[in-house]
Amino acid sequence: MLSQETALWLARSQFAFTIGFHIVLAAFTIGLAQWLMLLEGLWLWRKQRVYRDLYKYWSKVFALNVAVGVVTGVLMEFQFGTNWGALANRAGAVMGPMMYMEVLVAFFLEAGFMGVVLFGMGKVRPWVHFFATCMVAVGSIFSAFWILSANSWMQTPAGFITGPDGRFQPVDWWAVIFNPSFPWRFIHMTLAAMLATACLVAAAGAWHLLRRPDNRGARLMFSWGLWLLLAITPIQVVVGDLHGENTRDHQPVKLAAMEGSWNPPPPGEGEPLRLFAIPDMQAQRNHFELAIPNIGSLYLRHNLTGTIHSLNQYPRDERPWVPGVFFAFRAMVGLGLLMLFFGAAGLIARLRGKLWTSQKLQRGMVWMAPAGFFAMLAGWFVTETGRQPWTVYGVLRTAHSVSPVAPSLVLTSFFAILIVYLLIFAIGLWFLLRLLGRPPSHDEREPNAEVAEQTGRGITPQSIRGRYDA
Predict the structure, then answer these.
(1) What percent of the chain has pLDDT over 90?
(2) Fewer C-beta within 10 Å: the chain N or C terminus?
(3) Confidence of residue 1 (pLDDT cuts 50, 70, 90)
(4) Could you read off the pLDDT of 158-173 as tens digits, one per residue?
(5) pLDDT band at 73 (very low <50, low <70, confident <90, very high)
């Protein structure tokens, strides 16, 4: 017989792996949409066919990712409704409209122009096709906007009152949408999506360069991926620092778990930078701690003696799972530093004229292919686990958010959705590796060439066709 505690654990685990799978796909869609917009803009600007070929090459990956992402998204909504009914009942008046806006504005915008993007090249004027690509890219950003606004509200709730029936009622939509942590969370996540895509693009280019160093498409992928890493990673570092300050002010116990800070340091000593430790929640201390004095205060308070709240200043039942938050945060930061290293290494190799011949750099970049996605998952783990034991921070506990369903039903849905997710993800990954395992070629075809051929020739005059094929 399963207990209610086990049912809660199963519901939380189910949410963890469904959002874990889906967030990778959703973020990849955001990054790929911006990448396609960049490629088509370069094609129209420079009129070099290689950019159009790359556009078609990556549009196949985009179509596959959207297809898998839609399936996992529907299943995620299903488990959200079955397992978290109490949360929906309490917070539905606040979160429901934001989720609705995500579908109304973002999904319809993306879906409305998706057909033109995937099958319309050569059928409509080039600028019309580019406009459609831009609309899909903007739609993906809108989607992130509304989803992250809803999630940020659960992290830093604002603009609501609690009615006599215990339900949360919005009183200031501006405060609800632009809640205190939303701006930094939105920018941080959007940049993470672009970095993850840049890593994969550069890795795919490096993989093919190691086999065919003269492939121009592979060279452009490798070069542009490294440029993007070099340009975006420093911005992400700054945004991450500002996001950390926001967490310090609004979710101090989460920051204490990220830092593994159990007790305030003696006056004047400041917070150390803990490079490694094994947090022990039972003993309320760290084992095998390796730390650099005062450096923690430097990035937490921007001085050498500032302090933050510590874990032991909070009741045991209001602390998150410290070891998970502590190690996930270091994994995210470590992978981010690796991205910064490869962006800088690419610049040095470029300046020395060895970008196409440095096999060490290319092999290293191949290993970095999943780094952006792992960093994003680690960051999401910090965000979601760090706010426990709350679903709506400081207002509604996770234990009070779960649906009153029989534990056996939760167990059944847990394994059913897990099997479906693993199957879909495995199939999607297999097709992705097949697509990226083939180098970009001259005269790439659309994602579904047969469907593209069956569509009409549209309004493009014969005189315009072929103008951009040089």
Answers:
(1) 60
(2) N
(3) low
(4) 999 999 989 999 999 9
(5) confident
Q: Give the Cα separation of 327 and 288 in Å (integer).
A: 14
Strand partners, 287: 278
Please list the residues that pair with 161 across neighbouring strands: 169
Using a 10 angstrom Cβ sphere, with 0-12 exposed, 13-18 middle and 19 or more buried, the burial of residue 387 is buried
Q: Name, in order, each residue with C-beta under 8 angstroms of 175's C-beta and a sequence gap of 6 or more.
A: 158, 159
User: CA 181 to CA 189: how far, in whole Å?
Assistant: 12
Asked whether the beta carbons of 36 and 201 are under 8 A apart, the reply is no
Give the residue carrying structure tokens 């995937």: 118
DSSP string across 164-222: TTS-EEES-HHHHHT-TTHHHHHHHHHHHHHHHHHHHHHHHHHHHHTT-TT-HHHHHHH
Pairing of strands 396-397, 390-392: antiparallel
H helices then E strands: how many in the chain? 15, 6
Mean pLDDT is lowest, of 8-17, 186-195, 321-330, for 8-17
Strand-pairing partners, residue 286, are 279
Tokens of 136: 């899909």
Q: Are 414 and 10 in contact (CB under 8 A)?
A: yes
Distances (CA, A) of 221 to 54, 203, 333, 340: 8, 8, 25, 18
Question: Counting Cβ atoms within 10 Å, is residue 434 exposed (0-12), middle (13-18) or buried (19+)?
Answer: exposed
Distance CA 250, CA 117 (A): 42
Task: Assess contact for 363 and 206: CB atoms under 8 A.
Answer: yes
Q: How much is the mean pLDDT over the chain?
A: 89
CB 213 within 8 A of CB 278: no
pLDDT value at 265 more than 70: yes
Tens-digit pLDDT profile for residues 199-231: 999 999 999 999 988 899 999 999 999 999 999
- Per-residue pLDDT of 92-103, as tens digits, reads 999 989 988 888
- The residue type of 40 is E
Are residues 83 and 410 in contact, defined by beta-carbon separation less than 8 angstroms?
yes
Q: Are 409 and 348 in contact (CB under 8 A)?
A: no
